[in-house]
Write a sequence for this structure.
């Protein structure tokens, strides 16, 4: 699904030049659940932003679904993003002024889905993440775990090919964190491709593959076999 | 501590320079506006305040059912009030308008436009500062005159003026004193000439202003009733004797005159009669409106200030949180914040003073005054206003900010409170409301003035050159000569003359009666051709004509209003009338030969009064009342025509007085000058108000959109288009505008209806300003906020999704 070759991204300030991604190559298959780990500043967020088409690389190739997107401009990136990618953030990024239902409905509106279809999809999605009873509440009235579940629902409601999660449990306690991770695995089991940045080795075990980054390069890669065990527990 | 405080303030200001700019410029404009209005107010209030008699001197105005309020009085009142009322210490009659005179001394002519004729007691009422001679000397002889310092210096240079003989109107006068007017005064004359003889007791001529000096502490109401009593006992009752008419019937028919006492100290701004001396009257209502408007201006800038500070408070929440955890008390935080605001207030004050100093010369020219910034206590007051305004607008956000819970804030859980947003929106609505009101005001005022300027005045004022005839005596001869000679000039189409031209303001009032119906009426003395010359429309009968010898003896032309009031509108021709200038024994009746359509002979903003026209030769004295000679000139070579007239004038008519002329349309335009000035002032204030409001809106939009950038980023990540991002950002502002407009419309309608009611001839309330204004507001809001919102769509997504 994703093929990345020799990706380079550097940040410049007046004095220093930081290499965030250094000739990085990576491919992700459909249906995979990939974890990206590494210390602060290793380039994992940059990688995620580029994969999510929020940012563009300085050099290298990025194929998304056979399409070469590395040199796409903002508008082209936006149109692919809208149709194919869902985001889950560490700080949830829900809109405080909108209710749970409205937050989840938002991407459907932007994707020009008909109102009657929207209602069905949103309701289904809310039920799927187990938050339907809170549909009329506002984000600030919910616990962190609940907010993240809304964010996941919002990321998935358009049925994207790829979900990107940036430390989805970073702002949650372990109980709520677990709930969210279980939700993500479940979605992956149903066929959604997920790429997740995390600090937590525990969370990484929910995924099928973990890569570690350091100084903008991949330093190790592990296939996770215990995944099913955790689910069984 | 202060150093750190200042550092934070300075760096914050640098970061939020837009806020600072909006805050300070708004306050500056507000304070400058208020200061100017205060200076203006002060100046208007200062009239006669220097006069030690101001509390005891009253001007007598006369009010009657029929004629309204007259500012002038009769000699009978002057004489009887003094002799019969113990509380009246002294009375004086003074001519109400300045006259122009030439003084001849040593073969040299000096011209002054500010001559006042007075009874000898002038200085007992207006004790000007005497520089030379004495007011006692002035009293001694009716051939004694008094000069202002300026005029004395012009004639005598630095030599003493006292005792010198000067010639005025072929009579010799002795200079008895030189004075200086100490401050703004009811009279600011340059030359005082005494009436040649003491007044005889006469009830008919309301020609002069009458001042009464009361004993200190006298009961004004009681004096008033004594005066009214004298009028009834000595004037009306003797007339009624034997006529069988009761006082009540007389009152119904003619109206019994009642006096009004107008205090000298307050007459400038609070006059009941229409006229308040040759220095003019103050427009108290306008002053109040201006004060109100400048306060609104300050209010708007305060709203900006509070809105911006509370909206940007979240940006400073972290600073407050840190300060609090480091042990600063709520009180100290509040003080820090208020200090910041005071600094801004102080800066605004300095800018305001600078601004006022810069625009005062223009303002002075505009209102025809000489106001200085160092006039009275206004500066102190404005410092006070600046201080308390800053304190107030500092206190509100200071309390708001210092209430933040430090831990919450540091954790980043600070969120906008619903209540704060509501208050802010309400204040924004208030601003839109005020701006909208100004817009509507300007548009309605414009419509009314446009209507007035284009109104059919009933006479022709185009291409009419008016030359003032100053030199009194045998005017008609000069006029006839001029007419004879100048008519031959091919550039002069017609020549005529009259006592006054429309819009001059001095309508000579006298009694006009038919049988037992009588009232005060305007009058004009004219030449045969005047009615045609001025294109007045004769509705019935005919105008004056040389073909009828009776037209210089017993013919009178009246206007429609006079005919209606006399009850002869349907059949006026041939009716026999009497006018106040006739002596009682004069039995010659005046016969109505024509009725003319009403025309605006007294400015276009006053109701058309009854008036009559007589030929200038009808009375012996009226020959010398032809003050305005008029020439209809061709529109090309006007300058040459004027110089031809002037050359002739200097040689044959008047070599002493300056050749003074004007075009009738321009002269008449002076009657609506006042309204045009109001329009200009309103326009300037409106532009200021709208600019301040828009600046505030811009800054507020910047802030709120900045706070919503995270939301924008989220929406954008989810695939929103630019339109889908901009709309929600603008929406709330547009909603506020609509609500403000809905509240605005009835209020503005009511207030503007009130304003229009001030006009005798007014437009129907135009509807279009009420449609245009909300649309304009919406467009302005849309463009200002839209501009910011469009920029918001260009943000760097990653920055706002990562770091809040």
């Amino acid at each position: 699904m994703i093929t990345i070759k020799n990706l380079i991204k550097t940040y410049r300030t007046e004095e220093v030049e930081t290499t965030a991604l250094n000739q990085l190559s990576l491919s992700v298959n459909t249906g995979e659940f990939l974890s990206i780990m590494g210390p602060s500043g290793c380039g994992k967020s940059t990688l995620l932003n580029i994969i999510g088409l929020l940012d563009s690389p300085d050099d290298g190739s990025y194929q998304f679904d056979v399409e070469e997107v590395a040199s796409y401009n903002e508008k082209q990136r936006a149109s692919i993003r809208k149709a194919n990618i869902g985001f889950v953030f560490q700080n949830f990024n829900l809109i405080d002024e909108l209710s749970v239902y409205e937050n989840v409905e938002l991407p459907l509106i932007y994707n020009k889905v008909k109102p009657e279809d929207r209602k069905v999809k949103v309701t289904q999605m809310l039920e799927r993440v187990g938050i339907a009873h809170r549909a009329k509440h506002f984000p600030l009235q919910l616990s962190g775990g609940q907010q993240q579940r809304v964010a996941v629902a919002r990321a998935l409601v358009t049925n994207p090919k790829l979900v990107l999660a940036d430390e989805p449990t970073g702002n949650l306690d372990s109980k709520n964190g677990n709930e969210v991770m279980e939700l993500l695995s479940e979605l992956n089991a149903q066929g959604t491709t997920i790429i997740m940045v995390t600090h937590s080795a525990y969370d990484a075990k929910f995924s099928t593959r973990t890569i570690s980054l350091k100084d903008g390069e991949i330093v190790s890669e592990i296939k996770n076999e215990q995944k099913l065990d955790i689910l069984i527990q | 501590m202060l150093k750190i405080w200042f550092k934070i303030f300075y760096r914050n200001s640098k970061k939020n320079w837009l806020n600072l700019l909006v805050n300070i410029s708004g306050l500056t404009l507000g304070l400058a506006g208020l200061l100017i209005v205060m200076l203006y107010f002060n100046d208007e209030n200062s009239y006669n305040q220097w006069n030690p008699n101001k509390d005891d001197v009253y001007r007598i105005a006369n009010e009657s059912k029929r004629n309204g309020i007259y500012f002038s009085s009769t000699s009978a009142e002057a004489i009887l009030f003094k002799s019969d009322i113990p509380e009246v210490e002294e009375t004086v009659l003074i001519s109400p308008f300045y006259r122009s005179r030439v003084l001849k001394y040593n073969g040299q002519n000096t011209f002054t436009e500010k001559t006042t004729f007075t009874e000898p007691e002038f200085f007992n009422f207006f004790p000007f500062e005497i520089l030379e001679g004495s007011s006692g000397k002035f009293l001694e002889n009716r051939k004694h005159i008094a000069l202002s310092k300026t005029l004395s210096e012009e004639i005598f240079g630095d030599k003493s003026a006292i005792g010198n003989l000067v010639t005025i109107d072929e009579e010799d006068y002795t200079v008895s004193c030189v004075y200086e007017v100490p401050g703004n005064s009811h009279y600011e004359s340059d030359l005082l000439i005494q009436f040649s003889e003491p007044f005889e007791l006469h009830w008919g001529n309301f020609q002069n202003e009458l001042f009464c000096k009361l004993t200190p502490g006298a009961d004004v109401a009681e004096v008033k009733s004594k005066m009214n009593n004298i009028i009834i006992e000595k004037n009306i009752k003797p007339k009624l004797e034997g006529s069988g008419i009761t006082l009540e019937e007389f009152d119904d028919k003619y109206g019994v005159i009642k006096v009004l006492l107008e205090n000298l100290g307050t007459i400038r701004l609070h006059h009941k009669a229409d006229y308040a001396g040759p220095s003019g009257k103050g427009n108290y209502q306008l002053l109040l409106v201006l004060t109100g408007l400048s306060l609104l201006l300050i209010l708007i800038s305060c709203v900006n200030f509070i809105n911006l500070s509370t909206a940007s408070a979240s940006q400073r929440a972290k600073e407050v949180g840190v300060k609090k955890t480091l042990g600063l008390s709520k009180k100290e935080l509040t003080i820090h914040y208020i200090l910041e605001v005071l600094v801004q207030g102080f800066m605004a004050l300095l800018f305001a003073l600078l601004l006022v100093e810069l625009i005062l010369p223009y303002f002075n020219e505009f209102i025809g005054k000489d106001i200085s910034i160092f006039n009275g206590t206004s500066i102190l007051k404005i410092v006070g206003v600046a201080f308390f305004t800053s304190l107030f607008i500092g206190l509100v956000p200071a309390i708001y900010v210092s209430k933040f819970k430090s831990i919450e804030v540091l954790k980043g859980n600070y969120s906008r409170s619903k209540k704060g947003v509501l208050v802010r929106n309400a204040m924004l609505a208030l601003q839109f409301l005020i701006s909208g009101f100004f817009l509507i005001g300007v548009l309605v005022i414009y419509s009314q003035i446009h209507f007035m300027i284009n109104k059919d005045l009933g006479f022709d004022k185009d291409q009419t050159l008016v030359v003032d005839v100053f030199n009194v005596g045998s005017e008609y001869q000069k006029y006839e000569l001029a007419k004879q000679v100048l008519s031959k000039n091919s550039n002069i189409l017609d020549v005529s003359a009259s006592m006054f031209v429309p819009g001059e303001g001095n309508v000579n009032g006298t009694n006009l009666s038919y049988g037992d119906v009588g009232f005060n009426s305007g009058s004009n003395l004219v030449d045969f051709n005047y009615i045609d010359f001025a294109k007045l429309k004769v509705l019935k009968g005919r105008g004056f004509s040389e073909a009828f010898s009776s037209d210089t003896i017993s013919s009178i032309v009246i206007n429609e209003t006079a005919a209606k009031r006399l009850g002869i509108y349907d059949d006026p021709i041939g009716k026999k009338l009497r006018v106040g200038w006739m002596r009682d024994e004069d039995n010659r009746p005046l016969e109505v030969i024509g009725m003319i359509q009403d025309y605006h002979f007294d400015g276009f903003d006053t109701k058309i009064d009854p008036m009559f026209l007589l030929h200038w030769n009808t009375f012996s004295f009226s020959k010398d009342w032809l003050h305005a000679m008029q020439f209809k000139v061709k529109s090309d070579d006007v300058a040459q025509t004027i110089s031809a007239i002037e050359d002739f004038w200097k040689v044959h008519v008047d070599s002493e007085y300056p050749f003074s002329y004007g075009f009738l349309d321009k002269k008449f335009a002076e009657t609506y000058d006042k309204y045009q000035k109001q329009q200009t002032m309103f326009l300037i204030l409106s532009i200021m108000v709208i600019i301040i409001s828009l600046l505030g809106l811009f800054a507020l939009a910047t802030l709120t959109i900045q706070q919503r950038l995270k939301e924008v980023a989220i929406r954008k990540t989810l695939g929103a288009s630019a339109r889908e991002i901009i709309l929600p950002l603008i929406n709330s502002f547009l909603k506020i505008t609509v609500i403000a407009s809905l509240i605005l419309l009835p209020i503005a309608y009511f207030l503007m209806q009130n304003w229009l009611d001030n006009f005798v001839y007014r437009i129907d309330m135009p509807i279009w300003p009420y449609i245009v204004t909300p649309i304009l507001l919406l467009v302005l809001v849309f463009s200002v906020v839209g501009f910011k919102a469009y920029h918001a769509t260009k943000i760097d997504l990653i920055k706002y999704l990562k770091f809040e």
